[in-house]
């Protein structure tokens, strides 16, 4: 065999060997990681074993077609990948209770992110920024911000029980195709989504401010429970599914001047500082209207169609039901009708207390036919959430 053919055969065999070593990989120690440093592309999953201890460096790898997966590796202290630009599948880290550093300075694309019970992780070294991801779920971490998450579109975006998370600013996010949910984070969490124009469901708990100046349309629910903000403003919102404001102790102003359609039920309850409700453009509510509280003035000047029931109860003596009785007589309100002023114990349609200072209960059924999400069934994160919370106390 000539030298030319021998060299060609040798090169081919080396390539085949490299391909064999650049597939699914399990990492038990740094030596395992060093063994794939020659792989610019890892064609499979990279799994970090529970027994791994210390720092992990993934040098030389530029692309992982599968995912990075680790569950219960409690002694991993850091993961660095200085050249990695994309993870084709999931970036799934759960129960890495001593992890303090994620350094992925060139990472821009991830199939999905699921980080749960990482109580020591306080910040992200994502210098270039992740601009593409499917679903993102981050819960029970020590993160104080989400700098480095610079998504333009996202599926589910769920941020739960990150007790030190103080600010979230996703400047580039324009569209969410599934649930956006924030709950159980730092009590005065500030959320800024300046370019979000469309989405499906958005739910918020335990936040001090939310900015959605570009939001125009939601196909699903928009809900707020137990927030700390005084004003909610959505100046460009024209359409949403169910709309819920409950137990927002400081809320005194709701500004949605262009809202025309609620494709579901509209609930306001136990927002005791909300005295005036003015929705000058609202025309259609496909479900029920269920308002209870201490308000004295409600303006729904363009209302043309309420397909569900109507429950309006206020403690205030100056509140008037006259305009709503007229709407009922004109068959604008299609369902059952109840409107009361100067009542000591206003209730929601299902008999629950309508103010934070009173208590009442009756049947748990509603007369609207519309399904309202309550604070109790806003999405939660399961047993790993409890694990993560306990880990933070250690």
TrEMBL record:
Signal peptide: 1-18
One GO biological process term: fungal-type cell wall organization
Annotated Gene3D superfamilies: Ribonuclease Inhibitor
Region described as Disordered: spans on this chain: 341-364
Record key words, sorted: Glycoprotein, Signal
Domain of life: Eukaryota
Chain intervals with Low complexity compositional bias: 353-364
Compartments it resides in: Cell envelope
GO cellular component annotations of the record: cell surface; fungal-type cell wall; plasma membrane
Name recorded for this polypeptide: Protein ecm33
Species per Swiss-Prot/TrEMBL record: Penicillium arizonense
Native organism taxonomy: Eukaryota, Fungi, Dikarya, Ascomycota, Pezizomycotina
